Amino acid sequence: MSSLLNYLFVFSASLAENIGLPVPAWPLIVISAATAADGEGSVMLVFILAALAAAAADYGWYRFGRRRGSKVLRLLCSISLNPDSCVRNTQATFEHYGLKSLLVSKFVPGLNTIAPPMAGMLKTPSGKFLLFDSVGAMLWSASAVLVGFTWHREVDRILAAVSHLGRGGLLLAASLVAGFVAFKYYQRRRYYATLRAARLSPEEVHTMLQQGTGLVIVDLRSRSSLKVAPTKVPGALLIAPEEFEQRYKVIPREREVVMYCT
Amino acid sequence: MARLLHDKGYASVRPMLGGLDAWLEAGFPVEAVVLEEAAAAS
Q1: Most buried one in A5, A23, A84, A113, CB count within 10 A?
Q2: Whole-Å CA distances, A134 to A127, A142, A221, B40
Q3: Chain A residue whose CA is closest to B41
């Protein structure tokens, strides 16, 4: 592999994964860095290209999230094959840790693709987003590059062994990748079956309230945060998270329910 | 918690994006939290 090919390889791998395609970029960056360490280009440039591609893809998602809001979530679910990226747990993580989650999001499956558009949806200033996101992208790229650089001989040996297997090895690798994609696809389908609930935007909730659709709103803030901000969405039921298991029965079962916290 | 309700047989449970902050930011009305209600929630 020539250096130029190596650079192209690492850039596209990082870009593809961060756009949301089911590409395992991290191990590919390790391979690329190991190849560079063996003389096919500069390790530093591999690091920069991987981080740059990641940050560029993230910024695209951020802009998109900023402009289109919750529609982006639906789109993400349909291309990423990663059910986790749609799961509200990761959204809750983002809402809880805020921008700091951009620093580690690349290491958390699901949060990776969801964090940048979430930042956009929540109208994070772009300067702040770029700062946190590029640090996160650099940490992610640096971790893979360091592994590849440190253990480049071992990586080489594995690559040599795989290529020694010839057609069989190629077939094995191809079926592993196909299996990975198929598994992700299956996970996504199952996720869709169990959860058709997308989040509601405040605008949608407001409209539903005005139309009088019998919506039940539940305020899930703890007592301490209620003291700090003693207002709520009109008509919302107050149920503190600690009390939830005992008190959820006050929520009418047959009505549509919307929950929120801070 | 939405999942818990879902498991308990609630048909439609959805979280609101951005929470109360987003609601306030959108400029929608709020009402004061009544003390008794807050006490009941504790």
Answers
A1: A113
A2: 11, 12, 32, 45
A3: A239
